[in-house]
Amino acid sequence: MSEACFAFGTPITGGNVSFYNETFGEDIYPTPVLGMVGLLENAAKTISSSFKKSGDAILLIETTTRLVGKVNLDEEKALQRFMLDVIDAELILSAHDVSEGGLAVAAAECCYRNIHRGAIGAAIQVPSQLEIMKDLFGEYTSRILLTTEHVQDVQRRASEAGLRCTSIGTVGGDRLVLEYEGLSAVDIAINELEAEWRRGLGKLLS
Fold first, then answer.
1. Which pLDDT band, with edges at 50, 70 and 90, does 19 fall under?
2. What is the pTM of this model?
3. Region class of 38: left (phi > 0), else alpha (psi between -120 and 50), else beta
4. Does the N-terminal or the C-terminal CB of the chain have fewer CB atoms within 10 Å?
Protein backbone atom coordinates (compact mmCIF):
# COMPACT_ATOMS: atom_id res chain seq x y z
CA MET A 1 0.00 0.00 0.00
CA SER A 2 2.81 2.39 0.86
CA GLU A 3 4.56 1.56 -2.42
CA ALA A 4 1.39 2.34 -4.39
CA CYS A 5 0.90 5.66 -2.60
CA PHE A 6 4.44 6.74 -3.49
CA ALA A 7 4.03 5.54 -7.10
CA PHE A 8 0.87 7.59 -7.60
CA GLY A 9 1.81 10.51 -5.36
CA THR A 10 -1.39 9.87 -3.40
CA PRO A 11 -1.41 10.75 0.32
CA ILE A 12 -3.50 8.91 2.90
CA THR A 13 -4.79 11.52 5.30
CA GLY A 14 -6.11 9.17 7.97
CA GLY A 15 -7.53 5.75 8.65
CA ASN A 16 -8.63 3.10 11.08
CA VAL A 17 -8.23 -0.66 11.41
CA SER A 18 -10.59 -2.77 13.52
CA PHE A 19 -8.88 -6.03 14.46
CA TYR A 20 -10.72 -6.96 17.64
CA ASN A 21 -14.41 -6.21 17.10
CA GLU A 22 -16.94 -8.96 17.66
CA THR A 23 -20.49 -9.56 16.45
CA PHE A 24 -22.70 -12.13 18.18
CA GLY A 25 -19.65 -13.33 20.10
CA GLU A 26 -17.57 -14.04 17.00
CA ASP A 27 -14.63 -12.15 15.59
CA ILE A 28 -15.26 -10.11 12.44
CA TYR A 29 -12.83 -9.86 9.57
CA PRO A 30 -10.20 -7.10 9.91
CA THR A 31 -11.70 -3.94 8.39
CA PRO A 32 -9.15 -1.32 7.33
CA VAL A 33 -10.64 2.05 6.39
CA LEU A 34 -8.52 4.65 4.59
CA GLY A 35 -9.17 8.37 4.27
CA MET A 36 -7.91 9.96 1.06
CA VAL A 37 -8.31 13.37 -0.59
CA GLY A 38 -8.37 14.11 -4.31
CA LEU A 39 -8.78 17.20 -6.46
CA LEU A 40 -11.43 17.40 -9.18
CA GLU A 41 -10.45 20.49 -11.15
CA ASN A 42 -13.55 20.54 -13.38
CA ALA A 43 -16.73 19.02 -11.93
CA ALA A 44 -18.38 19.23 -15.37
CA LYS A 45 -16.06 16.44 -16.54
CA THR A 46 -17.11 13.99 -13.85
CA ILE A 47 -17.55 10.46 -15.22
CA SER A 48 -19.86 7.98 -13.51
CA SER A 49 -19.86 4.19 -13.82
CA SER A 50 -23.32 3.62 -15.36
CA PHE A 51 -24.02 3.17 -19.06
CA LYS A 52 -25.66 6.28 -20.50
CA LYS A 53 -27.69 5.60 -23.65
CA SER A 54 -28.50 3.12 -26.41
CA GLY A 55 -25.98 2.85 -29.20
CA ASP A 56 -22.89 3.71 -27.16
CA ALA A 57 -19.93 1.41 -27.81
CA ILE A 58 -18.57 -0.66 -24.91
CA LEU A 59 -14.79 -0.98 -24.69
CA LEU A 60 -12.60 -3.06 -22.39
CA ILE A 61 -9.33 -1.34 -21.49
CA GLU A 62 -6.64 -3.45 -19.81
CA THR A 63 -2.93 -3.70 -19.25
CA THR A 64 -0.94 -6.20 -21.30
CA THR A 65 -0.08 -8.24 -18.18
CA ARG A 66 -2.89 -10.19 -16.54
CA LEU A 67 -2.42 -10.50 -12.80
CA VAL A 68 -4.55 -11.87 -9.96
CA GLY A 69 -4.17 -10.58 -6.42
CA LYS A 70 -1.39 -8.11 -7.24
CA VAL A 71 -0.81 -5.02 -9.37
CA ASN A 72 2.00 -3.98 -11.71
CA LEU A 73 2.28 -0.37 -10.57
CA ASP A 74 3.94 0.89 -13.74
CA GLU A 75 1.16 -0.56 -15.91
CA GLU A 76 -1.54 0.61 -13.52
CA LYS A 77 -0.10 4.12 -13.61
CA ALA A 78 -0.21 4.05 -17.43
CA LEU A 79 -3.84 2.91 -17.27
CA GLN A 80 -4.84 5.70 -14.89
CA ARG A 81 -2.98 8.33 -16.94
CA PHE A 82 -4.85 7.10 -20.02
CA MET A 83 -8.16 7.44 -18.17
CA LEU A 84 -7.36 11.01 -17.12
CA ASP A 85 -6.45 11.76 -20.73
CA VAL A 86 -9.68 10.48 -22.31
CA ILE A 87 -11.81 12.04 -19.59
CA ASP A 88 -10.13 15.42 -20.02
CA ALA A 89 -10.61 15.14 -23.80
CA GLU A 90 -14.30 14.30 -23.21
CA LEU A 91 -14.04 11.10 -25.24
CA ILE A 92 -15.84 8.72 -22.85
CA LEU A 93 -19.28 8.62 -21.28
CA SER A 94 -18.83 6.11 -18.44
CA ALA A 95 -16.11 4.06 -16.75
CA HIS A 96 -16.36 1.11 -14.34
CA ASP A 97 -13.47 -0.85 -12.85
CA VAL A 98 -13.56 -4.61 -13.44
CA SER A 99 -13.00 -6.06 -9.98
CA GLU A 100 -15.20 -8.22 -7.71
CA GLY A 101 -17.15 -10.64 -9.89
CA GLY A 102 -15.17 -9.86 -13.01
CA LEU A 103 -16.45 -8.62 -16.36
CA ALA A 104 -19.95 -10.09 -16.02
CA VAL A 105 -20.68 -8.37 -12.71
CA ALA A 106 -19.17 -5.05 -13.84
CA ALA A 107 -21.36 -5.07 -16.96
CA ALA A 108 -24.49 -5.82 -14.93
CA GLU A 109 -23.80 -3.01 -12.46
CA CYS A 110 -23.43 -0.55 -15.36
CA CYS A 111 -26.95 -1.43 -16.51
CA TYR A 112 -28.86 -0.87 -13.27
CA ARG A 113 -31.16 2.11 -12.88
CA ASN A 114 -30.09 5.34 -11.21
CA ILE A 115 -31.46 8.83 -10.55
CA HIS A 116 -30.72 9.90 -14.14
CA ARG A 117 -32.26 7.02 -16.11
CA GLY A 118 -34.07 3.71 -15.84
CA ALA A 119 -32.43 0.34 -16.29
CA ILE A 120 -30.78 -0.22 -19.67
CA GLY A 121 -29.44 -3.36 -21.31
CA ALA A 122 -26.30 -4.28 -23.21
CA ALA A 123 -25.07 -6.88 -25.68
CA ILE A 124 -21.46 -7.94 -25.06
CA GLN A 125 -19.13 -10.43 -26.72
CA VAL A 126 -16.88 -11.62 -23.90
CA PRO A 127 -13.28 -12.03 -25.13
CA SER A 128 -12.20 -15.68 -25.13
CA GLN A 129 -8.79 -16.00 -23.48
CA LEU A 130 -8.90 -18.76 -20.86
CA GLU A 131 -12.24 -20.53 -20.32
CA ILE A 132 -15.78 -19.32 -19.81
CA MET A 133 -15.95 -19.02 -16.01
CA LYS A 134 -12.57 -17.28 -15.75
CA ASP A 135 -13.31 -14.96 -18.66
CA LEU A 136 -16.74 -13.99 -17.29
CA PHE A 137 -15.94 -13.79 -13.59
CA GLY A 138 -12.12 -13.66 -13.31
CA GLU A 139 -10.93 -10.86 -11.02
CA TYR A 140 -7.84 -9.74 -12.92
CA THR A 141 -6.41 -6.39 -11.93
CA SER A 142 -6.05 -3.24 -14.04
CA ARG A 143 -9.12 -3.49 -16.28
CA ILE A 144 -11.78 -0.86 -16.97
CA LEU A 145 -15.09 -1.08 -18.81
CA LEU A 146 -16.02 2.17 -20.54
CA THR A 147 -18.47 3.54 -23.10
CA THR A 148 -17.84 6.01 -25.86
CA GLU A 149 -19.02 7.52 -29.13
CA HIS A 150 -15.38 7.92 -30.24
CA VAL A 151 -14.10 4.37 -30.60
CA GLN A 152 -11.17 5.04 -32.93
CA ASP A 153 -9.86 7.98 -30.91
CA VAL A 154 -9.99 5.98 -27.68
CA GLN A 155 -8.35 2.95 -29.29
CA ARG A 156 -5.56 5.09 -30.70
CA ARG A 157 -4.82 6.70 -27.33
CA ALA A 158 -4.89 3.30 -25.62
CA SER A 159 -2.37 1.92 -28.11
CA GLU A 160 -0.10 4.93 -27.58
CA ALA A 161 -0.29 4.28 -23.82
CA GLY A 162 0.74 0.64 -24.28
CA LEU A 163 -2.69 -0.69 -23.29
CA ARG A 164 -5.01 -3.27 -24.81
CA CYS A 165 -8.37 -1.85 -25.99
CA THR A 166 -11.11 -4.20 -27.23
CA SER A 167 -14.53 -3.20 -28.54
CA ILE A 168 -16.82 -5.77 -26.94
CA GLY A 169 -20.40 -4.59 -27.37
CA THR A 170 -23.14 -2.00 -27.47
CA VAL A 171 -25.48 -0.44 -24.92
CA GLY A 172 -29.22 -0.86 -25.51
CA GLY A 173 -32.37 -2.89 -24.97
CA ASP A 174 -33.69 -4.20 -21.68
CA ARG A 175 -31.62 -7.36 -21.31
CA LEU A 176 -28.01 -8.16 -20.47
CA VAL A 177 -26.75 -10.51 -23.17
CA LEU A 178 -23.25 -11.98 -22.83
CA GLU A 179 -22.00 -14.09 -25.72
CA TYR A 180 -18.96 -16.33 -25.45
CA GLU A 181 -17.34 -18.01 -28.44
CA GLY A 182 -20.48 -17.42 -30.50
CA LEU A 183 -22.88 -18.89 -27.94
CA SER A 184 -25.20 -17.19 -25.46
CA ALA A 185 -23.74 -17.47 -21.95
CA VAL A 186 -26.11 -15.01 -20.24
CA ASP A 187 -29.43 -13.59 -21.45
CA ILE A 188 -31.53 -12.05 -18.69
CA ALA A 189 -33.83 -9.06 -18.22
CA ILE A 190 -32.06 -6.23 -16.39
CA ASN A 191 -35.07 -5.64 -14.11
CA GLU A 192 -34.97 -9.26 -12.98
CA LEU A 193 -31.22 -9.18 -12.45
CA GLU A 194 -31.33 -5.89 -10.56
CA ALA A 195 -34.17 -7.05 -8.31
CA GLU A 196 -32.05 -9.98 -7.11
CA TRP A 197 -29.02 -7.71 -6.69
CA ARG A 198 -30.93 -5.22 -4.52
CA ARG A 199 -32.25 -8.04 -2.30
CA GLY A 200 -28.79 -9.49 -1.79
CA LEU A 201 -27.86 -7.75 1.46
CA GLY A 202 -31.23 -8.47 3.04
CA LYS A 203 -30.92 -12.17 2.18
CA LEU A 204 -27.42 -12.28 3.58
CA LEU A 205 -28.51 -10.75 6.90
CA SER A 206 -31.79 -12.65 7.32
1. low
2. 0.90
3. beta
4. C
